[in-house]
Amino acid sequence: MSEKLKIKGGKALQGTIELRGAKNFVSKAMVASILGNSKSVLENVPAIKDVEVVSKLLMLHGCDVSYNKTKGVLEIDPENISSPKIADVDTVVGSSRIPILFCGPLVHKLGEAFIPALGGCKIGDRPIDFHLESLRKFGAQIEKKEHGIRIFAPDGLHGTKINLPYPSVGATEQTLLTACIADGVTQLTNAAIEPEIMDLINVLQKMGAIISVNTDRVITIEGVKELRGFTHISLPDRAEAASWANAALATGGRVQVLGAKQSDMTTFLNIFRKIGGEFDINDNGIEFYHPGGELKSIPIETDVHPGFLTDWMQPLVVSLTQAHGLSIVHETVYENRFGFTNALNKMGAKIQLYRECLGSVPCRFQQRNFKHSAVISGPTKLRGADIEVPDLRAGFSYLIAALAAEGESNVSGVDIIERGYESFTEKLENLGANIELLK
Ligand code: EPU
Known about the structure:
The protein has 439 residues and is an alpha/beta fold.
C-alpha cells in the first residue's frame, strides 16, 4: 500500500545524518559476488529496497545471503548457485533495473540466465539495447520470453571489442561483469567512469580480475580462469549526500552529512557554492548550510562523470526555485526527467520546460520532441500541497519542497523513496522536520 507523509513546512533542518553505501554501487557488487568461488562480504550496505530485491534474486539462484542491518554487513555465498524456477523469478518482475546485470555472471556460472522484465524509475525510455549488443559480441544469444529474456551462450563467452554509443553506466557494468572470466581480452571504448564503476573495478580486482582503465574512457579487461570472493567497504552515496545538501539549503538550515566524500562530489560542491550554499569539509564528512543572503541563479547541464550527475539534478531544482533570477537546467542523460516539475509549479514554483537544448552543446535529445530543458524563475514562495511521488529522486525533491514550503503538504507514494534512501523518515525527524507518516 502506498505510504503518505504529512509534512508541515517552514522549519530549517538542523543536525547530523549518516550516509551509508551507494545504492548505485552496492547492488552491482552484490551481482559481482556470483562470479566468485567463495563467500563475499560487503560492508556499509544500506537497508534499501534495491538491496532487498537483489538479495531475493540471489537467493532464488541458490546463493546464501545474510544481512546484518545494524552493522550494514552483507554476506553472500554463491557456492550452491543453481537455476531458479522461472515462476519464482517472475515475482521480482518490474521491481528494479539491476537484474539485467545478472546476464554475464549467470551465463558463466550456469550456462544460461532468465532475466525478468525490469523496473526502475520512469524517467525516460531506458532501453537495454547497449547491454544486449555487448552480450551478443561476447557470443551470447538472446531469446525474448513472455515475462523477460533468456540469455545463453552455447560456445561460451569470449573477449571482444565493444564501443558504446554513449557512456552508459549499466552497459559498462554489464561489460565488466561479463568480461572478467570470459576467454581472452575485452576492450571497451566510450565507457562510463562514474565513481561507482571505479569501486566495482576495485571489487573485481580484489576478486582476481585484471582490469586497466586507460585515458579517454577505454577499459581493458584480460579474462582470467576464475575469481574468488571479496571483502569490501562500499563507497558512500554521493546522490544521497547531495539530496541532504539541498534539503539544508532550501530550508535555510545546516546539515552535517557524515561519510560524504569530497572527491566524488567536486562538481556538485562547485555548483552548490556558486548558487550561494556553503559547506565545510571535515574528517567525518561534509557540513552543508545556508550561509544567509540571497541564493543565485545558474545555468547548468547534467552529464556523465565527471560532469554534473543527473541524480543530483532534481533536488537542486528545488533549491533553484529559491534563487534570484533565471536558472537554466539542461538534462542530457535522460529525455524525460522533468515531469516532477508540475508538482513544484502547483506549490508555487515557476518552471517552464523546453524541447530545445538550452545548454552549451546540443545533446542526444535535440530535435526529438523531449522536454529536457527547464527554465526556473526565482525566488518563489512555495506553498504546501497534496502531491504524489513519481520516481526516486523526484520523491526526495518533493520532501525538500514540502519542508521549505509554508503550510502543510501530503506527499503520497513515499515508499518509492525507500528504494534509495535508508531510514529517511527517521533522519528527517532527527533534523527537526515536522512530519507524520500515515500508512
Ligand atoms: N541507454 C540506452 N541504451 C542502453 C542503456 C542506456 O539508450 O542499453 C541510455 C539510457 O536510456 C539513458 C542513458 O543511456 O538515457 C544513460 O543510462 P545509463 O545506462 O548510464 O543508466 P543506468 O545504468 O540505467 C544508472 C543509475 C541511475 C543513474 C544513471 C546515470 C543504477 C541502478 N542506476 O542507471 O540512477 O541516473 O546510471 O548515472 O545504477 C537514480 O539513482 O535515481 C538513478 C536513476
